[in-house]
User: What shape does this take?
Amino acid sequence: MAELSTIIRYLDDLLTPQAFTDSAYNGLQVEGSATVSKVAVAVDCGASIIEQALAAQADLLIVHHGLLWGHEQPLVGGFGAKIRRLLGAGCSVYGSHLPLDAHAEVGNNVLLAKHFGLTVDGTFALVDGKPIGVRGYTPTPQSLEDYVNKARTLVGFGPHLSLPFGSSQISRVGIVSGSGSSAIAEAAALGLDLLISGEPKQAAYHGCKELHLNALFAGHYATETVGVRALGDLLHSKFGVPTVFIDEPTGI
Assistant: This one.
């Protein structure tokens, strides 16, 4: 068991949410019990995720896509029901969006680079001056299909899209988890052979085709399971509290 305030302070120091301009509120979003005996981690904070966290007897739920996004939210309807359910059970919620994408150790993008066997040698995809994505290389060129096959082993992998508009021999790769197709032009300008992200915008097809860039959109959910799982492992190691990963793929 650990103090909630101690865990939150540790997470804030680790992830530095104040350093990011984000559409999401990053940090403690719902304050429940003062002590934490179990931590649940998940990509999303849907009502079904909350119920699974409570069924697992978690006192703290850490998510990538939190409850609070860029505007005041009245505590009514389904949103109000989630807040009441959490507070009634004494379960806290901590959200980390861009900070968890960008982190150099437990971030989605650096862990995806490791999954795909890349040596990271830089960052890119700035959001208000902060780099979110990572870029790296493999010493031996690989095919787009090789990357698709590696993506198949991601937790939550499902529908995906490959755009084979670049070199058949891929050495230089950029990664932006989630919805990262806005990085297409920058990836091409950097001379990358492949952009890996989660889900595309409609413009991604022609953007990649015109800039002669390969892209692999491996699923928004699948590309963002790695960070929360790493956070869970880290908290277990640091504080000795048991952790559970709640896996509910969205197919997106």
User: Anything to note?
Assistant: The chain has a mean pLDDT of 97. The radius of gyration is 19 Å.
